[in-house]
Amino acid sequence: MQREPTEQFRSATQNAWWTVNRGDGPIVGTAIHNGHAMRSDARALVALTEEERLREEDPFTEFIIRDLANRIVVHRSRFEVDINRARAGAIYLQPAQAWGLSVWREQPPAELIETSLAVHDEYYAMLRSMLTAIERRHQRFIVLDIHSYNHRRQGPEAEPADIAEAPEINIGTSSMDRAKWADVIDTLVAAISATTLAGRPVDVRENIAFQGRGEQTRFIHEHFPDTGCAIAIEFKKTFMDEWTGKPDLEALRSLRTLVGSLVPILTEALARQR
Fold first, then answer.
1. Model pLDDT for residues 4-35, shown as the tens digit of each residue
2. 19 φ, ψ to 5°?
3. How far apart are CA 154 and CA 156, in angstroms?
4. Per-residue pLDDT tens for 193-206?
5. What is the pTM of this model?
6. CA angle, corner 50, sides to 148 and 17, nearest 5?
7. Which residues pair with 144 in a beta bridge?
8. DSSP string of 135-163?
9. Number of C-alpha atoms within 13 angstroms, CB side, residue 155?
10. Which of 134, 145, 183, 267 has its CA 20 to 30 A from that of 244?
11. Smallest Cα–Cα separation from 17: which of 74, 66, 80?
């Protein structure tokens, strides 16, 4: 039986918060919603099934960034603590925070919440330290904040979301100084548009399904306003069945190749910022 790309990776990281790979170069990839693991006390209170949680997580995004020398993969589920929400909303206490889902069997105790929020605090302390080191070495950097999104929310047999509102790749730039980083963003969009996936042109658009307003991009642009370009990239879940969780391995390999190919192109674009 063929194992999923992240199956062995996840089994080895059940107790880890995240994994950091540090190499040379100014391009960083992150997969902060890839995680599915939860602490035992949090998991015991969760009302959702494994399948319901997986549907709203971003499985296989760590696989997509594996060829980047600098990368961060978060292993904790967003249902334990959402790294991409502001601290005050990082625990889903109300259905409105979680696509209408009632996450908890009962109100989680304050101690559980604070333990989870400590992970949020530690993540951003780690991220700031890592990016400061890359800034010191390369003067500027780009973070590719990789996510994925559902497009069959009405059910596995229902019609997918209208393509007018659901590009295959969505580039989110709302939290950045768009004019300052225009050359980088335009270069990125042009590079993706020039490729094909499964023999067809790639539908890549900016700020359509999502606008890049997550906490990580906001944090980076706040703390590195002149040197850090954080780009939220959302892949529509055409690389998997969002209802069963089954991946399309060929599609995933194509996305991994695509993201890896962006490194020299973006490095050159970043050099033009000087």
1. 655 555 555 678 999 999 999 999 999 999 99
2. -125, 135
3. 7
4. 999 988 889 999 99
5. 0.94
6. 65
7. 29, 231
8. HHHHS-EEEEEEEEE-S-TT-TTSPPPPG
9. 2
10. 145
11. 74
